[in-house]
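In response to reviewer comment 3 from the previous cycle, which asked for concrete evidence that the modeling workflow produces usable outputs, we include below a single protein chain processed end to end. The sequence was submitted unchanged, and the resulting structure tokens are shown without manual editing.
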Amino acid sequence: MILFSKKDSFIRWATLLSAALVSCTESSASSARKSESDRLSSSSDFSSVSDSQESSLEETDAELIRDRSFSTGFHLREWTTVNGGPIVRHLDYGGTATSSDPIWTMARWWDPFDFKNAVESKEGDAYRYEDQSSYCLIYPGAGKMTMHLNSYTEYEEKFGGSRSSASQNWSHFLIEQSSFALAPSLTQLKKLTAKVSFRIDQCDLLDSEHYNPSLHTAQLFWYLTLSNRIDSGETDQGTDGDYMWFGIPLFDYRYQRIAEYKNIDSGVTGSTNKLIYSLANDIYLPVSENKGIELGKDYTIDFDILPYLREAFVYGKTHGCLVGADASRIRINYMNFGWELPGSFAITSTVQDFSLTALL
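The workflow returned the following structure tokens.
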């Protein structure tokens, strides 16, 4: 068994998934998949203009992520996913946020102390929100945030000790953005550069006696979605809103290098039953089987994810996902980022300078 994540455009969930590679459908013949893969992989399927037209078009850079400075504050979701995660508070920096309708949303899923009761204080240039098990420091205007979470404290409160079953919920500290400045399709994109800086200052296992790597870890991930958007009234373009997950993993306590991962999010109530396509993190980080992320060290990822988005789409299409969709309908318009702690850990990390720059 491998611990992984399942998510929703509005709600972040988590689950245990089998390590075996699973197809969306079992009926697709291998020969048909190869033929479809060859067809989809041709450059023409990801180009919205002809070669003769392309030379006459001016390329344009566009930033997709809105409010990169965190100036508008954060909506905070309810601590439980049972009610759909409604907004319960606006983290507005003591009334100094630049909008009453923030671009960003925060989720502290399964916090038994309920982060909506977090105490707000000013700490230098940052605003601090803190409850019994966690805190965040947000630097409005700088696009910087520190997260701290002690999941052992939460599990003591909920379960009287560490999680002992895959069916028990686990602690999350996440931020998300559900509507970008632009929502380009795969055929409109010539390049999509993902960039973010981060540092992990602490990742302490607090219950080594009961540690089980099939149940317990601490994970830091960045996720996007590839979503199908169809024209009104059309019936031959797949299902409007159908999507798959695209993962950019940064850290997992169990591994020096995080391997590529492809599987269906399924197995428990609330599963999205969507494909997760997650990259190997040595593509964009200086890690290997013998060298992992170092605590206290600053890292920046900065690479073109478009080739991998295309590979993810081709993989989904050739494994029965995004049925009826074509690349011209697949939009990039959602992200979430943060920690999941199925194990008993104390983590502290800082992230800043999110960017998704599209070359159109």
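DSSP finds four helices and 19 strands in the chain. We consider this sufficient to address the reviewer's concern, and the full set will be provided in the supplementary archive.
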